[in-house]
Sequence to fold (347 residues):
Amino acid sequence: MKLTFRWYGEGDCIPLSYIKQIQGMTGVVTAVYDTPVGEVWDVKKLLRLKELCSAAGLEMEVIESIPVHEDIKLGAPTRDKYIEAYKQNILNCGKVGVKCVCYNFMPVFDWFRTNLYYKHADGSTSLSYSEEDFNKLDKKNLRLPGWDESYSKEELDALLQKYEGMTHEKLFENLVYFLKAIMPACEEAGVNMAIHPDDPPWDIFGLPRIVGCEADYDRLFAAVPDKHNGITFCTGSLGAGRFNDLPKMAAKYASRVYFAHLRQLKFVNETDFYENGHQTAEGNVDIYAIVKALVENGFDGYLRPDHGRNIWGEDAKPGYGLFDRALGGAYLTGLFEAVEKDLAAKK
Ligand code: DNO
Fold:
């Protein structure tokens, strides 16, 4: 396991030197953020990020994300052009030492929560989801927490229209087409792809979602068995689906988990939850059992503490503060040490 930390590049308010001070930290997870989706990143920008990391004593072996252009998800006639650009990005990443690329295949929207500042009794805040708030959203005039600036109303409407009639099967075929096309570039670059699960793992706003449960992963690996086709095991996304047995899935797919996002959720009723500090006792995600399942089944990927709360008065990007992720990192490192030593003693 390699402990990593998400860093939003030079615009991030958290300096690399602070990240380096977290014990056990090997590197950061980052991306080139200022290039439109579908274009090839300037290699100079990748090198600049890598140099900044190296100067701080950190590796840059994971990219999150290289976003997938909507035309690829739509299976539009222009998709091959965007796939070529994607392949070039993979090759360039490989050249600067990247080993793992995280991406997702969610149409239009990425992660979704109804509140980015859910207030806990102790004054900390975190992301949360409420079905009632979701149902209250004006679906004809969507303004989403965290997504307000991603699209103008016109752009969003036009994009949603393109997805009309999109089925789960068609979207899955488009994912398989994309993966089969990029696998040779992954082999050449020495890069593993790690698909991020849908968050939450069900259809939203009438758009199909296809990466959220065991059956989805079985179908994905059957269609593209190539070893470079792997997953980001995100416990916050998969855990939002109460139908998912996370320790079981972690055990089953451990060798395909190239990247683990460990995050805690606490359900307040059947559908609603808030995110919380990482410890198992703080929510419904059995982090200990998941770590155990991963370790016992040969997980050898990257790990990052994901989200947590905003604590100690920190005014950070929701889900991406320094303090609670650092505490999470310490907790996770401790769990891994214990579980790994236990396993070694049994051998
Ligand atoms: C949310 C993140 C996601 C993730 C993308 C990967 O906090 O986990 O936005 O980066 O889905 O493509």
